[in-house]
UniProtKB/TrEMBL annotation:
This is protein-glutamate methylesterase. InterPro entries: CheB-like (IPR008248), CheB_C (IPR035909), CheY-like_superfamily (IPR011006), Sig_transdc_resp-reg_Me-estase (IPR000673), Sig_transdc_resp-reg_receiver (IPR001789). The modification 4-aspartylphosphate is found at residue 58. The active site is at residues 164, 191, 283. GO terms for molecular function: phosphorelay response regulator activity; protein-glutamate methylesterase activity. It comes from Sandaracinus amylolyticus. PROSITE patterns: CHEB (PS50122), RESPONSE_REGULATORY (PS50110). Keywords: Chemotaxis, Cytoplasm, Hydrolase, Phosphoprotein. The keyword Phosphoprotein applies.
Length: 343
């Protein structure tokens, strides 16, 4: 074990799951479990006493549930919280993100445990979170500066959005700012652990006025439709706004891939916009290059409002304009309406 190992607090009401997490984490010399809590109140106590680098948090716990514990911990300290959940059809993990959690993984089955790939995914997310600067309570958005942002001239008819760590809350912020009359479909690639896409779709559907569902092979998208890429398939949009899936190899480690989505939108030229929100890595950047060459619009979340600036930085370096998260929705609405917006 290294002298600077990542300190992890495990909060899970199941002793079996807590021990499974400890085994997986302690097997990696980059990290170690410094404490285990079996209820929300104990998690708050240990978080204050141990000051862990990362906290893994179950949503369902006695005495105080994970949602309430997350809010109280994040109000008191700059904790990086990784939600661990088995079944998130109700979107509780994403509600946890709204309260301050940074990422989510699937909880191991008490008997089946995790696969080797899931072990690697958990450790990768812990390492990534340990490198993320965190504040306590989210700060208020910066004052709105009024200046004119010109559109490209052509009316945008379809929007692609990509995100990873910190993405669900950023996506919810963008969608919540769009009117029910938003006159274009939106397709979203959010990097998630397997089994969580449906919960994300339901949570976002509750958070905005648009119709959010999992994407379906062959469907024709209409204005106001928001579609989430399902697990383990690339999603492309063909001419005529028809959704197509493929299971080609992962692109830069991702399937679904934002680069695959954005590259497909390039066929619509100036009538498409690609947006990259908070996340690790570079997914989407090369796809935005193709989109911009075809005349489309590329937008990236700015560093100040991103949980992780990796993907937005790569998008910015590929030529995307950068905007604070609260300005991206109005910008998209203006592009779809082919007008200017005071931002």
């Amino acid at each position: 074990m290294t002298a600077r190992a990542i300190r992890v607090l495990v909060a899970d009401d199941s002793p079996l799951c807590a021990e499974a997490l400890r085994t997986v984490i302690d097997a990696d010399p980059r990290m170690r479990v410094v404490g285990i809590a079996h209820d929300g109140l104990r998690a708050i106590e240990l978080a204050a006493a141990l000051r862990p680098t990362v906290i893994t948090m179950d949503v369902h716990m006695p005495r105080l549930d994970g949602l309430a514990a997350i809010a109280r911990i994040r109000a008191a300290q700059a904790a990086r919280i990784l939600v661990v959940t088995r079944d998130d059809a109700r979107g509780l993990a994403f509600e946890a993100m709204r309260r301050g959690a940074a990422d989510v993984v699937r909880r191991p089955h008490p008997r089946q445990g995790w696969s080797a790939g899931e072990h690697d995914d958990l450790r990768r997310r812990i390492v990534a979170l340990a490198q993320v600067p965190m504040m306590t309570s989210p700060s208020a958005p910066p004052p709105r500066l009024r200046h004119e942002v010109a559109t490209s001239g052509a009316r945008v008819e379809i929007v692609g959005i990509a995100a990873s760590t910190g993405g669900p809350v950023a996506i919810a912020t963008v969608l919540a700012s769009l009117p029910k009359t938003f006159a274009a479909p939106i397709v979203i690639v959010q990097h998630l652990a397997p089994g969580l896409a449906e919960g994300l779709a339901r949570w976002l559907d509750d958070a905005c006025a648009l119709r959010v569902r999992l994407a379906r092979e062959g469907e024709v998208l209409r204005a106001g439709d928001v579609r989430i890429a399902p697990d383990d398939v690339h999603v492309a949009v063909e001419r005529g706004a028809r959704v197509r899936f493929d299971r080609d190899a992962a692109i830069e480690g991702h399937r679904p891939s934002a680069t695959r989505l954005f590259s497909s939108l390039a066929s619509t030229g100036a009538r498409a916009a690609g947006v990259v929100l908070s996340g690790m890595g570079r997914d989407g950047a090369s796809g935005l290059v193709s989109l911009r060459r075809a005349g489309g619009v590329a937008i990236a979340q700015d560093e100040a409002t991103s949980t992780v600036f990796g993907m937005p930085r790569a998008a910015r370096d590929a030529g995307a304009e950068t905007l604070a998260i609260e300005r991206i929705g109005p910008r998209l609405d203006a592009l779809v309406a082919a007008r200017e917006v005071a931002s």
